[in-house]
Amino acid sequence: MSLLSFRKGQCVKIGANEFLILQRLPEDNWQLQNATTGEWCKFTEEDLLDRYSKKELSFIVRGNGDYPLTEKLAQKLTHDLAAYPSQLVALAQNRVQYLKEVDRRQPIVIEPKTLCPLIELVSQRLQDANPPGWYTVYRDYCKWLAAGRDVRAIVLRYADRGHRGTRVRAEVIAVVDQVIEELYMTPERKRIPEVHFEIVRRLDDENKFRPGYDKLPIPSRRTIYREIARRSPYEVMVARYGKRRADMEFRISMTGPETSRVLERVVMDHTPSDIIVVDDHSMLPLGRPTITSALDEHTRCLTGFYAGFEPPSCLAVMRCLKHAILPKIYVPREFPSIKNPWKCYGTPEMVVVDNPPEFHSIHFERACLQIGSDIQYAKVRVPWYKGKLERFQGTLNRDLMHGQPGTTFSNILERDDYDPSKHAVVLLSTFREILHKWIVDVYLQTPHRGIKDIPAHKWHSETTGLPPRLPPSATELDVVLGMTAQRVVFHYGLELEGLKYNGPELGELRRRLGARLKVELTFDPGDLGHINVLDPLKGTYIFVPAVDQAYAKGLSLWQNKVVRRYAQRELDGRTDIVALAQAKAEIRALVERDFNRKSIHGRKRHARFMEDHTNSTLGERATYQPLPADSHGVIQEARDGTSQQLRQATGPVAEPQRSRQESAAAAGSIAGRPSFFTDDEALPVFEADLNLPRACATTTVPEDEAPAMRKPED
Fold it and tell me: Which of 435, 463, 491 is the last residue of a domain?
């Protein structure tokens, strides 16, 4: 770098203004002139040095009258020494020793008889076998002084040798640029050989009308590569792959939002696990469970998760949020092999999520409002806004799933000839255990580079003086994290998704507030065995069980929709409780029959239908009980006379005034309500084979047009 000082004629820059040093005044004062206005100013030397230390003052390198600073020399001073090849820097390091020796001998006359002895002396000291000539030393000395004794002024410019720019004729360049724009810079992404062939064709057509001495030369393929390389890589990617891909490839990653305490920011998202699990009973592959995770950004601790065959939905989000809030006391009891405690719990201050429908549902927004958590939605299609959780999910799949028998890998190209279904041996129960063990004993105990600490230790140290917040009771949390709805209370209770709910407390509420009372209620979509009805006067919820506990206890909302659709189609649209119970028994028989099929996608849907959604403290463990071996026969006999048996078993219905068409229409109107919990596209194999409606019907099927009931295949 240049070495300058406060002296007469030196230019300096103070703030945005440029000054010329005129002279030194008595008592360490300096007189400066504003280069723009011509105004004279007086500064103390201490003030100038202080401004230099605060980076408010800088010297301007411009040379002097004897040694002017040329434009090329000024351009060289803008390049850092690291930008030059190492051999050129080493050569300049030797050359500068000759210049310093000349500078120490000043004043001397710059001529051969004075410089040659100095050059010989320095070359012997440096053991330089190829010393420079006297005129080279003189020329470098002038540059060195003009640049303020900056070594960069004498670095050789080997890069400037040779011809500048392209040697291709302008007419050829015009054709090349046109073809590149038309073929290469397009979303179809033509290859360079195809671009070259088109250039050759066009130039050949052009040469047909030119005389022999003026024909355009055909450029080589390497020339086309060089012309493309001169273009901006960003613009090339925008034209060929789109702006989003280009922005992602050339984005600038900065530090995310800073946090100062635990649970200040909790990120939630879904990811499919890269492993195919096997059913514990039939030993057949079930598919890839979906994992919904909640990660605390401050400590990088996983506060909760939901793992099951439920696709991304509000149910999965609510269960993950509930698991994140509640303490994990069940871990050592359910999994004795886990050595460390999982101490992460508490209500998050802010939940950062993506933009799928389940995160925009009114149920999720109301639940976060009641527990006091703010919601922040990340930008669409920018996963790096949740980079910490994305990294955790990638680490989970790579560290735990990859390498296990049955892994699907993250990329299908990584599989080669590996068939995950044939090699899948990890049982569903084993998957739950290894997932808990990896989180508690591996991830939470591994040093994290981002926080420079162990996640479990950082959580413990951060929560020692400030324990996490919890809701007043787990029961109240169940109410808050449930779905919301409005229903009218009748003498028989109220009806929700085709099920009736009634109890003494609900009857007392109706007597106090009058008939046809419209109430707010919440229910757990994983267990329709009960609901919670809001008392508008007291502002509290009352527990109301389902009338038929044998059918509704432990039944999920999705399972109930499947049963109702099956009942409407196979049992002439009757949706009374007897028909639902009969349909439920028949569907479970068909599930057991079709479970042994080879389709993993179908078995995954069957496993989802068999899941038990009532237990949310064990990371949403999914369990099911297979039907007895002879159940197929019992169900088959029941189906042979379904309609006749149902009419004899039910007798007169509870409401004879309502016709069968009215009952079906009412059931259809309830089932037809839009909800983020529905998953009409993910039907089990048995329901798809029966050609059932893929959405809850809102119209009834005439009795004479009802399809004949079919027996299940053996």
Answer: 463
Position of tokens 């085709």? 498
Based on its alpha-carbon atoms, the radius of gyration of the chain, rounded to whole angstroms, reads 40
Select from 554, 583, 614 the last residue of a domain: 554
- Is 620 contained in some domain? yes
**% of the chain with per-residue pLDDT over 70:** 77
| Angle, helices 557-570/660-671, rounded to nearest 10 degrees | 150
pLDDT, tens digit (0-9, with 9 covering 90-100), for 205-233: 999 999 989 999 999 999 999 999 999 99
- Structural domain including 284 reads 266-463
- The amino acid at residue 50 is D
Distance CA 675, CA 358 (A): 9
Question: The dihedral of CA 82, 88, 90, 93: what is its sign?
Answer: negative
Are both 277 and 426 inside the same structural domain?
yes
High-pLDDT (> 90) share of the chain, %: 38
CA nearest to 570, candidates 388, 468, 710, 472: 710
Distance CA 282, CA 355 (A): 38
pTM above 0.90, yes or no: no
Amino acid letter, residue 654: A
Q: What is the residue type of 28?
A: D
Report the 10 Å Cβ neighbour count for 106: 7
113 and 72: one domain?
yes
| Phi, then psi, of 109 in degrees rounded to 5 | -85, 130
Determine contact, residues 614/527, Cβ cutoff 8 Å. Answer: yes
Instruction: Fill in the amino acid letter for 3.
Output: L
* Count: domains in the chain: 5
Contact (Cβ atoms closer than 8 angstroms) between residue 512 and residue 522: no
- Tell me the C-alpha distance between 405 and 401, whole Å: 9
